[in-house]
Amino acid sequence: MASLSLKVKGLTLAQFPNAPLAIAFVAGVVSMSVAGSVEVAAKAAAAVAMTVWAYEELAHGVNWFRHALGLYSLGGIALGLIGFLHG
Fold first, then answer.
1. Core-most of 6, 12, 68, 74, by most CB within 10 Å?
2. Cα 53 from chain centroid?
């Protein structure tokens, strides 16, 4: 399957399709639309998908920007998890 890329001065900023990111987005929308155990499951699915996406960018990103984006995102996910656990 061919992928579309958003490039600025030869630097790839985004690539589509991106399955983990799409799953995280859909799960996030679902989590805002429901309540109870479905909401909790959707939030968990969104968090796992975002973690997978961030790791993939950090480990396999196409350039330094994508590696940095993955690192930044993993840091944000970790801080969010720490806040949740201490909340």
1. 74
2. 5
